[in-house]
Description:
Blueprint: E1 3-8, H1 15-26, E2 29-32, H2 33-46, H3 54-62, E3 66-69, E4 76-79, E5 82-83, H4 91-101, H5 104-120, E6 132-137, H6 140-144, E7 150-155, H7 158-170, H8 175-192, E8 206-209, H9 215-227
Parallel strand pairs: 1-6, 1-7, 2-6, 7-8
Antiparallel strand pairs: 3-4, 4-5
Helix pairs in contact: 1-9, 2-4, 3-5, 4-8, 7-8
Bound molecules: cytidine-5'-diphosphate.
Amino acid sequence: xxxxxxxxxxxxxxxxxxxxxxxxxxxxxxxxxxxxxxxxxxxxxxxxxxxxxxxxxxxxxxxxxxxxxxxxxxxxxxxxxxxxxxxxxxxxxxxxxxxxxxxxxxxxxxxxxxxxxxxxxxxxxxxxxxxxxxxxxxxxxxxxxxxxxxxxxxxxxxxxxxxxxxxxxxxxxxxxxxxxxxxxxxxxxxxxxxxxxxxxxxxxxxxxxxxxxxxxxxxxxxxxxxxx
Length: 228
Ligand code: CDP
């Protein structure tokens, strides 16, 4: 039957690359919930919303025309017909996203959309034809899909996470680049942790530590959890 795989983890844990790899190997759809929070942030900023105005931000997110493309080899994000796949990775969005993601009404709305996608992937009409989905984020194993068939918390040492994020953003993991990444990543983790617990595995969630594993090894480690 259809399979739901939930993967949570902090910034730089490698959860996006790993989740895409797992979805490809299993022929499942792929849902990046972080991209949904980033898209919501992009939408609010484009509309000129004051991100500290909780009511205005929640109202804006409720009317956001968001379309998530679920192909793990080429996931897409469109808002109001605009391909925002690149724009949502900007420093501006990375800096602002926690303000939107800590808005509880925004979380309720995006949770509703995320569950709708996960449910749709259990039907033949889904992107993966009813095979299921790998959904990744910060609260998928605990809040969005606590009933998922497989639940994994992907962790890595702070050193490994900063090096990976630095490589993503600056193209290098030399000392200066890591230092430039550090404050932003640690601040975002701290802010995010006020609304979702993603540093400690909840009951029934399997921890996979990727500090000393490369991408392929980490995908294999998660696949081992799926088949166990
Ligand atoms: O860049 P990184 O991979 O660390 O983060 P992301 O997965 O793109 O998520 C961006 C932001 O969205 C996070 O910093 C959280 O503020 C928020 N988020 C969330 O609150 N809940 C989720 N399930 C996923 C992301």
